[in-house]
Specification:
Blueprint: E1 7-15, H1 17-23, H2 28-36, E2 40-46, E3 49-55, E4 61-66, E5 71-75, H3 76-79, E6 81-90, E7 93-99, E8 106-112, E9 115-122, E10 125-133
Length: 135
């Protein structure tokens, strides 16, 4: 049975965000701004339904989805694109595949103790963020 990810998580660290954003064709000014942000995550996990809220001082981004059900994700606030997104479990990891203009786009979340890990990919770039559970 997969873990329940419900909780509020504070930003701890990130690696390779600038190159990841460059792979998404984000302009240099926005890349520099995003690299300065320290987002929090709020996850509500109820059965096969999840809401993942990424909270920043600039803007929030909300993903509301059912596990295993493909939906059109509007990523226009992020990089101006839409894609077909499916989120599913692979063992204890929540895995998202985003089909669209960019190859190998997606992410995965997993827990190690009270730390939430996020590995985001686009093209050949990988960005890793770590968050600490606070409630």
């Amino acid at each position: 049975m997969p873990p329940n990810l419900t909780g509020y998580y504070r930003f701890v660290s990130q690696e390779n965000m600038d190159n990841y954003l460059r792979a998404l064709d984000i302009n240099v000014v926005l890349r520099k701004l995003v690299c300065l942000l320290k987002p929090d995550k709020e996850i509500i996990h109820t059965g096969d339904h999840m809401v993942i809220r990424t909270i920043t001082s600039l803007r929030d981004y909300v993903m509301d989805f059912d596990i295993g059900v493909q939906f059109e994700e509007n990523l226009e606030p992020v990089d101006g694109r839409k894609c077909q997104t499916t989120v599913s479990w692979e063992g204890d990891q929540l895995v998202c595949k985003q089909l669209g203009e960019k190859r190998n786009r997606g992410w995965r979340h997993w827990l190690e103790g009270n730390r939430l890990h996020l590995r985001m990919t686009a093209e050949d770039e990988v960005c890793v963020q770590v968050f600490q559970k606070v409630k």
